[in-house]
Amino acid sequence: MHTSVLLIELGAVILGLGLLGAVSVRFSISPIPLYLLAGLAFGAGGLWPLSASEEFFSTGAEIGVVLLLFSLGLEYNADELAAGLRTSGGGGLIDLLLNAAPGVAAALILGWGPVAAVALGGITYVTSSGITSKVMGDLGWLGNREAPTVLSLLVMEDLTMAVYLPILTALLAGVGLLGGLGALAIAIATVAAILYLALRHGRIVQRFVASPNDEVLLLKVLGLTILVAGVAEELQVSAAVGAFLVGIALSGPLAHAARSLLTPLRDLFAAVFFVFFGLRTNPADLPPVLGAAAVLALAGIVTKFATGWVAAARAGASRTSRARAGAALLPRGEFNIVIAGLAVTAGVQPRLGPLAAAYVLILAVAGPLLARTAEPLARRLARRRSGTSPPVAGLPG
Amino acid sequence: MDVERVPLPGIGLKHVLATARGRRVGVVSHHNGRRDLIVYRRDDIESAADTVALSVEEANTLAELLGAARVVERLAELHRQVEGLVSVQVPIADGSPFDGRSLGDTRARTRTGASIVAVVRGREVIASPRPDFVFGAGDVVVAIGTAEGTATVSDILTGTG
């Protein structure tokens, strides 16, 4: 009886996600907000609460985070990260300060305390590198002048996450300031050690994992990733960061093979992760935080746009390119939910989860839409500025 | 001609070149083998006017088309530059004495003064083949020299000389 209910629920949810995915492809939007909405519908207080499959979704969500971060790490190789640190450290710092500020301020104003402030700062800060690179690819922006600037900022953010997540994990565990500093030291040491291993001795890892057989390669890579993630979690460095670093350590043809093998698994479990976050959020908790989420989203749009604009200006790009850089960085998505998920699990503040869900729902949808309008708008403004625009009826010049 | 090379972290590499006529063309090489062909706007050199995504196979075909055209163009140019210089294209037929033998064996240059400058094999152009290059049936040999010299090369390769 239990098995049949479990299978029926799982099948129905995954099929539903497939249909939502088709909608997202049809309208060329990110599926993340749709998955969150599906989770809200199936969760406690939703339209059709699930009964038997909570446990699967809970475990699946953990694996989803690990695979999300692993495949993010696969996208980068260690050289790119080192180069990114050298060239865009300044822009990265502006990015962090400008965009964490609204979250930190909001949490403090709402009286949620310092730990929630650190979590909410992370939630408002980080751009969804997944959505942003997809938007840039879809709009044909990868060849543009601002593309290297935007992509370097994403690298910096992901590296920042590798340091931020362990600190947050430690703070959420209630270790206090001293413990937090200890966790930071361990995290930086671990990240540095793995980056060193990947840069200097990447071949050893590659040789250990490499196999001509797809099945063997899949199991080795998946096993290694989850194992390292677990050990990292045990050391309070956070499972996500462990998986990210394994992804970085793999490069070249092996990374390519691992990516094509693990992408289907990642897609499945990442969807499970977003659904699970929605499951844990009671839709009735959303309306009270909608106002705060809208204000935060507006602030997030302004600060991110300014970040992209300034970074592109520092690189000497034109106004049109600056506008595109600002707009490309707007979407929030997977990382923000990862951070919120950690905070919700620790039970810091009951309204943090719904607020993060609403924030991501708004910006995952609005970000790509705003990006689409950025270029035409910037061109119209540029024409008006230079005074060459054809006179509009009834308006002078 | 300068080719600008810009790394795109997480995506791959971008190469951009400016043509003599002032247009800019670029290629984004993704880690996964995909190539984007980019044509920049005339009025804004920082922005792409159009981007064409190419699969590995499509990119290779395009590269061959551009590359092969260049070899033909260079030959035509040589013709114009040097009066009295002739190029011939000699197919290696089945049963040709040089099917399976090397370029060095023809001793074309010492015997005729003409040079074998390229071999077209299928859709591939092998420019400046080395003496140890082995001909196969179906190859088309491109030789350059005087009218007399190239005619002799043609005779040697077809086995009539």
Fold and architecture overview:
The complex is a heterodimer of chains A (397) and B (161). Helices cover 81% and strands 0% of the residues of chain A. With 397 residues, chain A is mainly alpha-helical. Chain A has a single domain (71-371), classed as Na+/H+ antiporter like fold, CATH 1.20.1530. In chain A, helix 2 (32-42) runs parallel beside helix 11, helix 2 (32-42) packs antiparallel against helix 15 and helix 13 (319-328) packs antiparallel against helix 15 (352-386). Chain B folds into 2 domains: 3-54, no CATH class; 65-158, Alpha-Beta Plaits (2-Layer Sandwich), CATH 3.30.70.1450. Chain B is 29% helix and 35% strand. In chain B, the strands form 2 sheets. A 5-stranded antiparallel sheet of chain B has the order 1-2-3-4-5. In chain B, strands 6-9-7-8 form a 4-stranded antiparallel sheet, with helices on both faces. With 161 residues, chain B is an alpha+beta fold. The chains are: A mainly alpha (397), B alpha+beta (161). Chain A binds chain B through residues 75-76, 80-81, 83-84, 129, 133, 140-148, 151-152, 154-155, 255-256, 259, 317-318, 320-321, 324, 375, and chain B through 6-11, 14, 16, 26, 28, 31-32, 36, 38, 40, 44, 46-48, 50-51.
